[in-house]
Amino acid sequence: MPASVGEKQTYLSFGEALRRERELRRIVLRDVAEATKINIRYLEALERNDFTYLPAGAFTRGFIRSYARFIGADENEMINAYLDELRQQERPAGRRARDDEDALPLAFTPPGARPAPRRRVLLWVLLALLLLLGVAAGLALPRWLAAAPARSAATAPPAVHALADAGAPGAGAPGAGPTVAGAPGAFAPARP
Fold first, then answer.
1. Contacts of 106 by beta carbon, 8 Å cutoff, 6+ apart
2. In terms of pTM, does the model score above 0.70?
């Protein structure tokens, strides 16, 4: 944003222009924060052109609109100045990486960017394996549950088999319930 200073023209950055507009109207930053409900740290970052800790673009543009509206500045002009400043900050880093032949490729992936193709393939393989495991478990579970009574009879404790084989009192009598080893009238098998 051009601003004339004496004979020569200087260009203010977005943050400097925002601060200048606020100070011309004699508004304190805390008043802006209270009126717009924007955290004062975000407002300070805007005035410093430090966009690294600000939320995603749409939120930041909303902050700038609210800020500009409160101080009486043109909202669209401030948004455009912000976008220009953002482009200016991104351009030098991109040029340096391209101009430097020895520069290693950057491994940084910005938040919200799509994962690398290798990761996507790995994700699909993992999901397919989980699905296959779920189908296998769904098919095997009914067979396992059907075999459960046979397994429980084969693995019953020896005391139950001894009661049934020895003909314990009341073992075959109608209406007689099962007896528990150690209970009065229960048959306890001899230990070898």
1. 97
2. no
Out of 1-10, 111-120, 127-136, the most confident range is 127-136
Output the pLDDT for position 164: 56
Angle at 64 between CA 60 and CA 68, to 5 degrees: 170
CATH for 66: 1.10.260.40
Token pair, residue 117, equals 């193709």
For 3, list phi and psi in degrees, rounded to 5. -140, 130
Token pair belonging to 175: 């209406």
Is residue 88 in some structural domain?
yes
Structure tokens belonging to residue 100: 């430097």
Burial class (CB in 10 A: 0-12, 13-18, 19+), 78: buried
Q: What angle do CA 24, 30, 33 make, to 5 degrees?
A: 100
Higher pLDDT, 38 or 110: 38
